[in-house]
Amino acid sequence: MNEVTLLAFAAVALIGIATPGPTVLLALTNGSRYGLKRALPGMVGAVLSDFVLIGAVALGLGALLAASEFWFSVVKWLGAGYLAFLGIMMLRSKGSLEVSEAVAGASSSVAIFLKSFLVAVTNPKGYLFFSAFLPQFITPDLPQAPQYVMLALVFAAIDFMVMFAYALLGSRAMHLLKRRGALWLDRICGGALLALAGSLAFYRRAAN
Asked: Where do the H-state alpha helices sit in the chain?
């Protein structure tokens, strides 16, 4: 794998990551609700999920989901259900700009971390995407494990930077928006997560 291949991979990855998806929306809402610092555990959870997904694909899980309707459906419905749950919670939120002690306790660093991590690892699209995407940048006649590690590190770094930018945008926007603006941001992101849950529920495994 040469530098040109890595740059091409990074460019394509940046486009894919910057397009708003579940983890990016969570970074935006976490930044707006809790501030940039408290949004960091969510970014770490999403980055860890990148390594899990790419590692799983390297070990053949992506191929299993592509071949098995049963396991594909299991992961799909888990992911759709969790996205729907998060979307409903956002739609029911009060849009508060202040984090009380009670909210801080309910929205601990561990909880914020788990939300982003679980959203990613329960999405079968991620496994199928990496299964189709990563092999295009792997040199077959070279050891594959180091190549997968390198691609995972590049992807995770870009993912973190994009989420950091969205979380920063959310935290800065809340300084300018009043409570009503915060309420509408929660409504928009909640609706977007529900829409993503719906699209995942209707997503079909490609026929072999």
From this structure: 3-18, 22-34, 36-59, 61-67, 69-91, 101-106, 109-121, 124-133, 144-176, 179-201
